[in-house]
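Design request, tokens follow.
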């Protein structure tokens, strides 16, 4: 450690951290919501089934919850990956919650919960997860 002549940060070798200073802002931290969207899946029998997807641009692949896959008759023959469950933080979007965001008032955002998600869509479904429109709140709204 003391013999190291390499150029890198001192904490690599366990040096005590140094804090130069801190500042604080008095505000309530913003809640970050998962990108949950309603989707319709067409079963092999041609029946349309409504469910919810999680838009996950940080994932390389898309998945389907095993119980849901069995219910709609998807067997994974076309390279699909199933998972027994999703470990997501509990979140629920209600009409009351959406009403607190004035910039979203003209949108029909369905109520949903992280428990309703059966299909996490990853970057392999890029056209499905790309954002086509972004709404921004005013600078003095909910977020810090």
């Amino acid at each position: 450690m003391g013999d190291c002549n390499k150029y890198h940060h001192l904490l690599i070798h366990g040096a005590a951290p140094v804090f130069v200073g801190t500042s604080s802002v008095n505000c309530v931290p913003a809640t970050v919501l998962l990108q949950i969207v309603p989707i319709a899946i067409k079963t092999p029998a041609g029946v349309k089934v409504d469910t919810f997807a999680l838009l996950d641009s940080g994932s390389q692949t898309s998945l389907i919850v095993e119980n849901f896959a069995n219910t709609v008759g998807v067997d994974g023959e076309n390279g699909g990956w199933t998972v027994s469950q999703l470990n997501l933080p509990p979140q629920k979007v209600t009409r009351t919650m959406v009403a607190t965001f004035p910039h979203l008032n003209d949108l029909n955002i369905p109520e949903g919960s992280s428990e309703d998600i059966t299909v996490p869509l990853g970057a392999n479904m890029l056209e499905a997860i790309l954002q086509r429109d972004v709404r921004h709140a005013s600078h003095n709204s909910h977020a810090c």
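Comment from the thread starter after seeing the answer: thanks! The chain has three helices and seven strands.
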